[in-house]
Design a protein that fits this description.
Rossmann fold, four-stranded parallel sheet, 13 helices, single chain, alpha/beta, 2 domains, about 15% strand
Length: about 280
């Protein structure tokens, strides 16, 4: 009888082609999977899913298995019938998974919130729960609309991304998307840069951003590091303490969770609109 009940429970998924064992390869696909899947459909999350530096759901993810590392062998041991990968997953790992015959779902657009919505809808449909994706999209849109209302007519602040790595975020990046929703002008995008580019030191001095925005890290004092690093150390923004720190997991979010970063940056840049 117990075996029969288990089979009956699985019948809808078997009949409709819903995946029963899904492994997520990246933190971004973790967020998508958690949003639309039944817990029983999640075979394992990415190896970074429990690290708060990378995942906004690190604590909640403790209840799910995780792959040991990003290698194909770590994924295959969970015997998945679907693996979620991205265009920044290592090519050799993706190739090995393809050779194994396992179905892969590739996600390769993350720059805007509309991309995030499309990814949610696609996975929600695949998992058999499109209504869950639509509910999250509606909730996110409501928050974005409220943020737009608060920031209506505000004078944008000129900002630039800052980190320990010698790169700056231009247009077509998640950082630029955050700026667009937080009452900010991304000076790198304004100067014509696209994607993540090596820092053009002399140009940065001419850009002279009002505010620097970087990842919050409990183990690293970013302000102290930047004060020793050109070109940041020459910028008035740093001299006067105009540095906004946002949790790194939010700042790098490729999914709908980035709305938290919108609100975080907006509050820091325009506190008068949130009193």
């Amino acid at each position: 009888m117990k075996r029969l009940l288990c089979l009956l429970a699985l019948m809808p998924a078997l009949l409709w082609g819903r995946p029963l064992r899904v492994v997520s390869h990246t933190v971004g696909t973790d967020d998508l999977l958690l949003a639309v899947a039944d817990p029983g459909q999640i075979a394992a999350l990415s190896h970074l899913s429990r690290d708060p530096k990378f995942s906004v759901h690190a604590k909640e993810n403790q209840r799910f298995p995780v792959i040991r590392d990003s290698e194909a062998e770590s994924i295959l041991r969970y015997k998945p019938d679907l693996v979620l990968v991205t265009n920044y997953s290592r090519p050799e790992v993706v190739e090995l998974l393809k050779r194994s015959g396992i179905k892969l779902m590739l996600f390769d657009r993350f720059e805007s919130l509309e991309d995030a919505y499309a990814n949610l809808r696609r996975l929600g449909q695949t998992m058999g729960h499109p209504e869950r994706a639509e509910a999250i999209i509606q909730q996110t849109r409501t928050r974005v609309a409220e943020l737009e209302r608060r920031l209506a007519g505000v004078k944008p602040r000129r900002v630039m991304s800052a980190a320990v790595y010698p790169f700056v975020a231009g247009a077509d990046t998640t950082f630029h998307d955050i700026c667009l929703h937080a009452g900010a002008i991304n000076v790198a995008a304004e100067a014509g840069l696209r994607g993540h580019q090596p820092i053009p030191t002399e140009q940065v001095l001419r850009w002279n951003p009002e505010v620097l925005v970087g990842p919050k890290d409990e183990e690293k004092d970013l302000a102290s590091i930047l004060r020793q690093t050109p070109p940041y150390k020459y910028l008035p923004a740093l001299k006067y303490g105009n540095l906004i720190l946002i949790p790194g997991a939010l700042l790098a979010s490729t999914t709908h969770t980035r709305v938290d970063a919108y609100e975080w940056m907006a509050r820091a840049l325009h506190p008068e609109r949130f009193r």
